[in-house]
Amino acid sequence: MDELVERVDDQDRALEVVGRRQAVREGWLHRVAVTVCRDERGRILVHRRSEQLSRYPGLYEVVVGGAVHVGESYERAAARELAEELGVRVLPRLLFTFVNRSGLSPHWLGVHEAVVPDTVTADPDEVAWHGRLTEPELRSALLEWPFTPDSHEAFSRYLAFRTARS
Fold first, then answer.
1. Cβ(4)–Cβ(68) under 8 Å?
2. Rounded distance, CA 35 to CA 91, Å?
3. How many angstroms separate the CA atoms of 49 and 147, rounded?
């Protein structure tokens, strides 16, 4: 069953309900919510996508997330994805949104941040491996490991956002 999402315009206003596969195939803007997960020490959770996933199997990610369903807010979608993929129940904080043109198709990307516990229960259908890296370790990994396009774009904007706020 295809996920139902809202096709949105360049101002992030809903236009119509469509299937996510169709939105990707047609290159229509829709919403995706992702979260940068930190622990109490500031390390960032990184994971490798399962090999059976249709989008970017086996690639690494800096963010956890997925499509925003019809009628869902970015925050609710981010919380739902954290529960589904990591078994974590936290309320992520929306930091910013932007139109992301990297990846399979253009989409509005809502970037969140959350402090998550050290122990997570990753869904093996989604996550093949996970670990925590310091920012310097992650910067090196981004140059050496195969990451998803969203990871590169979201993390670079996340760092710029944090720098601007300091």
1. no
2. 10
3. 10
